[in-house]
Amino acid sequence: MNKSLLLGFSALAILAATPAFARALDPDKPEDAVEIMKRAQCGAKDGTPAIYQWSGKIFSRVEGESDRLLFTGEGMNIRQCVTVTDPKRGKGYRQVSREIMLFTDPKSGEVIRNWTNPWTGETVEVMQVANDPVNVPTAFPYAADGKPFHLGYKRMGPWLAMPLEVPLFYHNVLAGNYQDYVGGKYHAMEIFDFIAPANEILDTKKPTAHPSISWVRISDWMPWMKMRGRQGHLVFNAVGTKLDNFDALPKQLKDEIAANYPIYAKAPPTDDARPNETTWTAFKKWVDERHRRQPPTAHPGS
């Protein structure tokens, strides 16, 4: 074959393998900021599953006593994104996901099935976190009122850091219908800190990015702990990263998913319209099913 022709075919092959209009994304432009978030959360290509995995510790925080390390935790979230275009708000994306976190023993690392509450002495069954779905509202470059999307980022040398604080204060399905009057709402704070190589997440020639993440959560007690209104909170502290695929998860997570949560090997469909699951809605279903199978014994005098 003619050498110049061969070089021409080689150049065409390189062009074919390079995304069209490859460029450096600008975090200060609303359109690019949304694309950066999509690349961090999922990837540039719609419908491609992405996996985040994390590992950490879970402490008690009770006024007047030392913090206690109660559990370690091993978790994963599997998600995918789809492009959504609005004539006024621009090109955005919708993210759908489901997630699991296992409560594990700080010494053995084994999944805890039953736990003896150190405050009450009662042994309770542990409900692992298994929320399906955990979907995110569509992100657009511009809000309905025209306000541009702002990516809260910090450029730190070769890294792009993206902190995200999520205050939570909402109706607790376990606490009745009068929470605005007597309290009992679910109150928590989740803090996600993503950090990615800037030359990866801002370069559209690369199909995705692999950020590392830290996750902190301050929340009420898990309902299965049966704390009966005891003062205090849980503090979760974990680190994680986006993995290349499901097989890269730790064996413990893969084994637990295969045995008890097989649907979590795949992300929900991108048109998933179900309401989000939370620890509280999942627990209500969990405990209602147990009461259906075995009604609770009435207390004396009731």
How do the helices and strands line up, and which of them pair or pack?
Layout: H1 3-17, H2 30-41, E1 50-61, E2 68-86, E3 90-104, E4 114-116, E5 123-125, E6 129-131, E7 136-139, E8 154-156, E9 159-170, H3 179-182, E10 186-197, H4 198-201, E11 212-219, E12 233-243, H5 251-260, H6 279-293
Antiparallel strand pairs: 1-2, 1-12, 2-3, 3-6, 3-7, 4-5, 8-9, 9-10, 10-11, 11-12
Can you describe this structure?
The chain is α+β, with helices and mostly antiparallel strands. Strand 8 (154-156) and strand 9 form a beta hairpin. The chain has helices spanning 3-17, 30-41, 179-182, 198-201, 251-260, 279-293, and strands at 50-61, 68-86, 90-104, 114-116, 123-125, 129-131, 136-139, 154-156, 159-170, 186-197, 212-219, 233-243. Strands 1, 2, 3, 6, 7, 8, 9, 10, 11 and 12 form a 10-stranded antiparallel β-sheet that branches. The chain has a two-stranded antiparallel sheet with strand order 4-5. The termini are far apart. It contains 6 helices and 12 strands.
